[in-house]
User: Fold these one by one.
Assistant:
Number 1:
Amino acid sequence: MAVVALTSACTSTSPITVPAPATTTTSLSPRSSLEALDERAKAAIPSHMAFETLGAGPVNASGLGPEAPVEGDGIGEVCGALLRVGRGTSVARTRTWSGGVNLFERVHVTSELPAKALVSMVREKAQACAPGAEVAVARPDGVEELFAYCGANDPGAVPWSCKAAFSRGNAFAFVVVNAESAESASLQLSAALPIFAEPLVKV
């Protein structure tokens, strides 16, 4: 597996967005529509206990409480740049798992934009700023688009991370697996992806 430093290139922090066609306008959906998107986003995230079998000990989870949906349209950070949905209406939810594992997921459910466009954005950015970092992982059943890559983090952080972007229809997920070694991060990503994907492909 070829691994490169995720932070060695492309350190611009300028937001990256999906270009909007000239004929596209953005409008707010009715509250009921936003609530429906939020219900789908919540349903797309695995439960608090979903990763117990992967860890070396108990797993703690946070997020997905009764609070309002996550604000903003950021989908994930690639090489120091925050990528954004950029157009249309979307609702996001996040959850972190710690303890026996170190995992993070952010789910976006969009009203119009096909989620595969967000996977393409992650792929293009990572291939440009971290060439050679892409890793081959099995695509879980029901997932339409998938891209994954791994690399070393800056000193002081968890040494290694593997990240994956995947989608089905209008549902998109960006997941991060942190570990002490490249091998451990890659193995945990392969084991965790089917668990992440199972609820998302049903919404």
Number 2:
Amino acid sequence: MCNIRLFIVLISFSIFGLFGQDPTDPVIAFKLPPAAKKITWAEYKKEKAKYTVKRVPLDFKSLYQVGGILIGIEEGKFPLSYPVTLERIQEAGVELLRKKETMISNEIVKINNIRILIRKTQAVDAYNYHFYSDFKNFSNVSGIVEFKKKDKQQGDLIFDQIVKSIRMN
């Protein structure tokens, strides 16, 4: 089922060339890098074993890899009682920092008329960049881009491209 969903998204990219639309949630659209390869949890964990800080994304449904850069995306609808504010997520992130991590930034910005929390941390040998969109019609998208120091320039670019491509209808 997941492969069918990815196939539909990839066809949307190639036909329209703009934004991939999640067919299960018409509220959210975003673009992944063309070189992004869908990977399994096993492949993800194998790549993460090379990192000093072994943070694993919490239940991301979609995992991708571009070279040594790992991408996790979670999107969908949430029940009426679930949505919390970006400010609460922002505060909780500071408390969840691990001893081996340094906060680079933890700010709420507005991109494409959408409020997005961007949290960037640096561990001993890697960077973890998270994003969380505000809720619209009880839907949101969140994700992580993780990469080693040697891939920082490309990781920064990929993160910025994904975040700047987010659209909510």
